[in-house]
Design goal:
α1 (about 10-25) packs parallel to α2. The termini are far apart. Helix content is about 30%, strand content about 30%. The longest helix has 19 residues, at about 95-110. The protein has about 120 residues and is of the alpha+beta class. The model has no long low-confidence stretch (mean pLDDT about 95). It contains two helices and five strands.
């Protein structure tokens, strides 16, 4: 299997710009690698580049780059409280990040009886 390319400057710009629009300020993002199963049936883990950030309410966000123009996303509050967007994989990073932020905002509103 081919190695997954690192997160590009363009991808970093997309995420940082989207976060600035959402939060009204620059957010600190961190870059890492994570080992995940690309397919549920995979026995081997694959190293994937990751962008991570945390909001002011202690919610953690992770975007995994799973291929060239392929992304997955999730947010969590604690390790046992992990949530996804309902979409297994995106081929558009903007759509991935916007969906992740929207699902989290909806979850937050529901948890706080705001909807």
């Amino acid at each position: 299997m081919a190695e997954i390319p690192d997160i590009t400057d363009s991808e970093q710009w997309i995420i940082k710009t989207t976060l600035r629009e959402r939060y009204g300020r620059d957010m600190e993002v961190q870059y890492a690698d994570s080992e995940i199963r690309l397919m549920p049936s995979d026995r081997e883990l694959t190293a994937c580049p990751v962008i991570y950030w945390q909001d002011d309410e202690e919610c953690h966000f992770v975007v995994f780059k799973t291929g060239d123009r392929n992304y997955r996303a999730q947010f969590f509050y604690r390790p046992y409280q992990q949530y996804g967007t309902g979409v297994r994989e995106y081929d558009d990073l903007s759509e991935c990040v916007v969906s992740l932020l929207q699902v989290q905002a909806d979850h937050h509103a529901k948890e706080h009886n705001e909807i």
